[in-house]
Design brief:
Distance between the termini: 40 Å
Number of strands: 0
Shape: globular
Mean pLDDT: 88
Number of helices: 20
Low-confidence stretches: none
């Protein structure tokens, strides 16, 4: 049965995605439109002008039309002085999804060759669904990778598997890994976990080649969610530790840092150039506007809100992470934090500072989604909790513990989707077009 675990996990998440797709009629909406715009613009237009992508009218009927209608004006985002759409979203997600988008186009071409008459516009069900399935594949891949990481950290395989499953089902990963997948969160989680996996695996022999690979992953993270560029602090900490222990000469350290930051910079540079050539002025970029607005409204309530806000807080929405954080405090108090946990915590602190400053945590999103690249920290803490429960009590208690927090998360997601989400077209609850589609399905 063990060999079917990951296929079953994949099928389960795809099933949730498919049911949601059937009900809503599409998988691209909200911020997902900005990430998806890269796929259409790169593949069909071969340019970086997203104006026609932001004029596309997203609904099931229009997405699958042979000649989809377009809005007379750019939607969701603003325009520059030339009337071009100001797509402030980053391309990393699209890079990961591009193979599946191309596969979808191949399926459409072949199907039409045999007389299927599918819309080859880049917006239809085939493109959106295969892109969504691709996103889920990354989530399942990172589940496998996370288990390998816990094995390297000397957790039992049984404990590691349950810990990863608990992380997937009791946090916002369930929402963003199966329900709302065409966003940047799956990519951020995948790349961050890949980075920490490689970093830990190579920690005793960080050669120039290894710094190159870490720089490559960090660069991909940077163009997926720019805030995740602070993962470079992990490398700086590692370098400082090696230098302190006299395990590396300063000439080699400078060479390695040059390679790491050079690769990260080169990967981030095209996004910066896109911003420079698209936005009329630097201070008109939404990231800048949000940060300046947040600075003028900052308060102690905002500092706590990222963690404890009723709707968007990391700990209040997913209490299993609060339990994990409590364990971290206990380990810190008893001075039992190992080097890797300290490194992960430093990254978390930098993320926390940026998230508070930027203020994006207040958006209509589930369970502190801006912290999603910090979840490897909580994964290790969860494994420690499960290891303690299994050693002190029994597996029945362990599974009761898991069941309680998974149930809380499922109920929390249901409440968010149905009543609390500030969706497009509705102030609260599910999207207006989704509600209209449900009514159509019920009338059949």
């Amino acid at each position: 049965m063990k060999k079917f675990y990951f296929p079953l996990l994949f099928i389960s998440f795809v099933s949730i995605f498919s049911i949601h797709y059937f009900v809503s009629g599409q998988a691209v909406y909200g911020d997902g439109i900005g990430y998806y715009a890269y796929l259409h613009s790169w593949y069909f237009d071969a340019d970086n002008d997203f104006t026609n992508e932001y004029r596309h009218i997203y609904n099931h009927e229009n997405n699958n039309s042979q000649r989809p209608l377009s809005s007379p004006i750019v939607q969701i985002v603003g325009t520059n002085s030339q009337g071009k759409a100001l797509n402030h979203f980053s391309p990393g997600t699209a890079l990961l999804l591009l193979p599946f988008y191309a596969l979808a186009d191949g399926v459409v071409v072949v199907a039409n060759f045999f007389g299927a008459s599918l819309a080859r516009t880049g917006y239809s069900d085939t493109y959106q669904m295969l892109s969504g399935v691709g996103a889920i594949l990354y989530v399942v891949a990172v589940a496998w990778l996370s288990e390998k990481l816990l094995l390297m950290l000397r957790f039992k395989q049984s404990v590691g598997r349950v810990a990863v499953l608990l992380l997937l089902l009791s946090t916002n990963l369930l929402y963003y890994g199966s329900f709302d997948v065409l966003n940047s969160h799956f990519a951020s989680f995948f790349l961050a976990t890949l980075f920490f996996f490689y970093f830990y695996k190579q920690k005793q022999r960080l050669s120039t080649k290894n710094y190159f690979v870490l720089g490559l992953i960090a660069g991909l993270l940077s163009i997926t969610r720019p805030q995740d560029a602070v993962i470079s602090v992990v490398v700086l900490v590692a370098v400082a530790v090696l230098f302190k222990k006299n395990k590396s000469h300063w000439q080699q350290i400078l060479k390695n840092l040059f390679v790491f930051f050079g690769i990260q910079f080169l990967m981030f540079l095209p996004l910066v150039l896109q911003w420079i050539t698209t936005f009329d002025t630097f201070d008109s970029h939404p990231y800048f506007l949000w940060m300046t607005a947040q600075q003028s409204q900052s308060s102690m309530r905002d500092l706590a809100g990222t963690l404890f806000h009723f709707t968007n807080g990391l700990f209040t929405r997913t209490p299993i992470l609060f339990v994990s954080a409590a364990l971290f405090v206990r380990l810190a108090y008893k001075k039992k934090l190992d080097y890797f946990l300290k490194v992960l915590f430093i990254f978390f602190c930098f993320q926390y500072a940026i998230i508070v400053l930027q203020g994006g945590w207040k958006a209509a999103a589930y369970g502190g989604r801006m912290f999603i690249s910090s979840l490897p920290l909580f994964l290790i803490l969860l494994a420690k909790i499960l290891e303690w429960i299994e050693g002190r009590y029994s597996k029945i208690i362990l599974w009761i513990f898991v069941g309680v927090f998974v149930s809380i998360n499922v109920l929390s997601i249901s409440s968010f989707v149905l009543f609390e989400k500030e969706a497009s077209g509705n102030k609260f609850g599910t999207e207006l077009y989704t509600g209209q589609r449900i009514m159509k399905l019920l009338d059949r």
